[in-house]
């Protein structure tokens, strides 16, 4: 027996290309065409789908009714907070954040933002407004007074 692995005949060999190049992960596109009779069914389905979008700043979201340049882009950048962007959106004015999957579903179907339900997003992993606040909140550490009683210069 040889310790050298055999080449994969599917991906390489005479007349066959080598390994496939890695593809850039793109968001999944979904087109919705629902009439009034089944609009509630679609709203319920969307409210069920939205929480399943993985959370993270670099995780692609879902695109509804178009593409990345012209559709409705929904992503979960922080756990329990979804961004909804109506494209094109060059200045960011058509982006809002929501904390309710049902509201996100309603916004997608209405194709307009619900200003009353929009929230201010958390900026860091622990919900703080900045890096220092997040470090303190995540670690439970609070600034300690100088034991000598003198301020640092």
Overview of this protein structure:
It is built from 3 helices and 5 strands; from the N terminus they run βαββββαα. With 153 residues, the protein is of the alpha+beta class. The chain has one domain. Strands 1-2-3-4-5 form a 5-stranded mixed sheet, covered by helices on one side. The protein is globular, with a radius of gyration of 23 Å. The protein starts with 27 loop residues before the first strand and ends in a 14-residue tail after the last helix. Residues 124-145 have low confidence and may be disordered.
Keywords:
single chain; 153 residues; alpha+beta; 3 helices
Write a brief caption for the model:
The protein has three helices and five strands, in the order E-H-E-E-E-E-H-H. Helices cover 20% and strands 15% of the residues.
Inertia-based shape: globular
- Mean of pLDDT: 75
Taking all Cα atoms into account, the compactness measure Rg is 23 Å
Give the count of structural domains: 1
**Strand arrangement, largest sheet?**
1-2-3-4-5
Question: What's the helical proportion of residues?
Answer: 10-25%
| Beta fraction | 15-25%
Distance between the termini: 71 Å
Q: How large is the count of helical segments?
A: 3
Low-confidence spans: pLDDT under 50, at least 5 residues? 124-145
Element-level helix/strand string: EHEEEEHH
* Quaternary structure classification: single chain
- The secondary structure category is alpha+beta
Number of E strands: 5
Q: Main β-sheet: number of strands, strand sense, barrel status?
A: 5 strands, mixed
């Amino acid at each position: 027996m040889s310790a050298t692995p055999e080449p994969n005949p599917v991906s390489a060999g005479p007349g066959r290309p080598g390994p496939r190049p890695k593809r850039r992960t793109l968001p999944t596109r979904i087109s919705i065409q629902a009439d009034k009779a089944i609009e509630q069914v679609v709203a319920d389905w969307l409210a069920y789908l939205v929480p399943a979008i993985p959370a993270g700043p670099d995780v692609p979201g879902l695109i509804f009714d178009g593409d990345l340049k012209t559709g409705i882009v929904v992503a979960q950048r922080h756990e329990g907070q979804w961004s909804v962007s109506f494209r094109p959106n060059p200045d960011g004015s058509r982006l809002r954040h929501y904390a309710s999957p049902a509201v996100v579903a309603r916004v997608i179907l209405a194709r307009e933002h619900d200003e009353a339900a929009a929230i201010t997003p958390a900026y860091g992993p622990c919900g703080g407004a900045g890096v220092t606040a997040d470090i303190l909140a995540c670690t439970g550490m609070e600034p300690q007074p100088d034991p000598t009683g003198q301020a640092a210069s």
